[in-house]
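question for whoever is on the cluster today: can someone run the full assembly for these? two chains, 720 residues total. i dont have access anymore since they changed the login thing
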Amino acid sequence: MHYSLRDARFRALVFQVVALGAVLAALAYLVSNTVTNLEARKIASGFGFLAREAGFAIGETTFIVYSAADSYLRALAVGLANTFRVALVGVVLATVVGTLVGLARLSSNWLVSRLATLYVEVLRNVPLLVQLFFWYAIISENLPGPRAALNPLPGVFLSNRGIAVPTLVIESAHAWVLGAFGLGLLLAWRLAVWARRRQARTGQQFHAFWAGLAIALGLPLAVFLGAGAPSALEVPALAGFNFAGGATLTPEFAALLAGLTIYTASFIAEIVRAGVLAVQRGQFEAAYALGLHRNLAMRLVVLPQALRVIVPPLTSQYLNLTKNSSLAVAIGYPDIVSIANTAINQTGQAIEGIAIIMTVYLTISLSISAFMNWYNKRIALVER
Amino acid sequence: MKAFVAVTSALALTLAALPAQAQSTLDAVKSKGFVQCGVNTGLAGFSQPDSKGEWQGLDVDLCRAVAAAVFGDAKKVRYTPLTAQQRFTALQSGEIDILARNTTWTLSRDTSLGLNFAGVNYYDGQGFMVPKKLNVKSAKQLAGATVCVQPGTTTELNLADYFRANNMTFKPVVIEKLEEVTNAYFSGRCDVYTTDVSGLVSVRKSRAQNPADHVILPEVISKEPLGPVVRHGDDKWFDIVKWSLFAMVEAEEQGLSSSNIDQMAGSNNPGVQRFVGASGELGKMLGLDDKWAFNVVKQVGNYGESFDRNLKPLGFDRGINALWTKGGLMYAPPMR
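^ ran it for u. tokens below:
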């Protein structure tokens, strides 16, 4: 490389350095300008507030124990955990519902395919926020108060405070059951590996799936029964204003989850349909010609090719669902945005609060992206 | 490369010092021709648009008083409806000139937000509202209740403090928009709605299907002095807002009202003479026209008129918001 602008490589390097420098300079200007202005206006800055006592209560928590005496940092962690909970469950449910609807739209049954079309066209064309208000109103306006709660199953209560369900009283035997389940899974996996190798070697098939399922479920069941089936339940009971004991699925979480799942599923349905249609008919026919059963043809020939089309846009939908969960603030689900907003208002430190929200979503989104890219690479066509 | 960044960063730092100090709020307001006032998104009695779309309320009257003092025309106000969460940022960023949105004066807000409270136009306290059919008589009976509350308010903090102090638990349902949070309460999602007592009275009167079905519990758990807020560091504007409010209080004490100030302007009382600008230079000291206080009372009315017009129809008592001469807390320093 010659240190002259006539050298293409040197020229490219110079341009890159200049561009990078300009971006960094603009960033530095913005940061320092902001700091100066905040100081001039006597607005507090910095992240010192994170260690201070939050002082506000949070309606529902996931795994993390929290009280108003805890710090802002802990409050934000509770918000983050709540965001994770709704996003994780939402992604799984949206994928299941979306796949079912997408396949239903391809069904040869006229009614089923039209219903699926209706689902997709209505739900993906109504703004998500409106849908959230709709679900929230349905739950809080139509269900009775806790003192007149519906009792569809013994121990299960349905009211405008949510669904209260009994929980298992945890004993030491349950840890053994869990351990046995883990062991069962491991054995089932070993069995599957052995069966595949044997089939490759001898051509003989073995029903590894069913045998594995029997081991994975049978082993913990045996331990459970052996320990005398400890299944004491903590049943929710009306105490004062509300149900105490058991576990409660709140209306806010239910409405948010329903809204996110149903809305995102309508997009996933179209992606799945596109993916299946992208596999040429000849592939089915070729599979049948080889003597593969319909299910096997789907699993071994069509699906691997469809997934290649499906996964990249599916990643976008997962990202959308996670980011859309920030609409929780409108219906009072305490997600990270809701908690950070409260923190911003109590401390007045908007810039720090927004920076936290942005960092959180960026991190979550990039993690999902990285995982999906890894998965996409795994299922991608291997070209030689 | 490193040197380059260092140079540009240094350059950026010097550049940052360049932006001139923003012009004074009074000059900015005068040149744009109106006062931009941040108000509640709709709290009956304090700030709410009427059937003609005109904003009405105690807080709105304060905005109008400032406009009357600055321009001699109480109509030169534009309103920005703000939620509890948006209000401080809107003021800090210069989007509004005054925040008159039933905002509680606290030490931390006064010091760390870069804001100044220009007085108190309503002395309030936090209370609880419950449906009558729950048969609750005292806030001490609320253990385990679900409570609807707006986020980012002193209310949210007092609520947690009160339940902690009394060793009770509760479930908060925190929703930002006033409409949504009161809907949640009236639909039965919560057992209790909590905010300032003035807010409870206003919401019960204006949003409940049958106001008699809801009771406000006797406990008032906090002090909530509500007042107008301006940006820190512009003392001139701070003085104007502060004294516009005081002028309304002083007028009530002097017996000056929108209906009689024209006649009273001719009186020989030196206090009234100074007030209407016939003698002394009170207006000039504020950087305003000498008839500033006359215009406030003529166009907006005194504090009592504003209270009677906006809050009395909703069932509010003067209570501690009466003049100090009548056993209340409303007190204006001498206007001389």
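summary bc i know u wont read the tokens: The first strand of chain A starts at residue 150 and ends at 153. The beta strands of chain A are 150-153, 156-159, 162-165, 167-168, 233-234, 237-239, 242-244, 247-249.
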